[in-house]
């Protein structure tokens, strides 16, 4: 995987918006974005973090 180019926050928000993310709110320069995607996304995020679903549920 190649290096990411240098980009502004505005460019990153615009690119994210084009693939389904939306700006939920903004405080100063911090932008909170949401993506309402499939429930399988949580499982893949848990796996990306190197955890199991049972381990994740134990933290709740």
Automatic annotation (TrEMBL):
TM region positions: none
Protein name in the entry: YcfA family protein
Key words, A-Z: Endonuclease, Hydrolase, Nuclease, RNA-binding, Stress response, Toxin-antitoxin system
Lineage: Archaea, Methanobacteriati, Methanobacteriota, Stenosarchaea group, Methanomicrobia
Pfam families (alphabetical): HicA_toxin
GO molecular function list: endonuclease activity; hydrolase activity; mRNA binding
Annotated Gene3D superfamilies: Hypothetical protein
Any coiled-coil regions, as ranges: none
Highest taxon in the source lineage: Archaea
């Amino acid at each position: 995987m190649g290096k990411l180019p240098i980009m502004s926050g505005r460019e990153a928000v615009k690119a994210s918006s084009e693939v389904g993310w939306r700006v939920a709110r903004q405080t100063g320069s911090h932008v909170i974005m949401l993506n309402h995607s499939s429930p399988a996304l949580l499982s893949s995020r848990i796996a990306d973090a190197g955890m199991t679903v049972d381990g994740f549920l134990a933290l709740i």
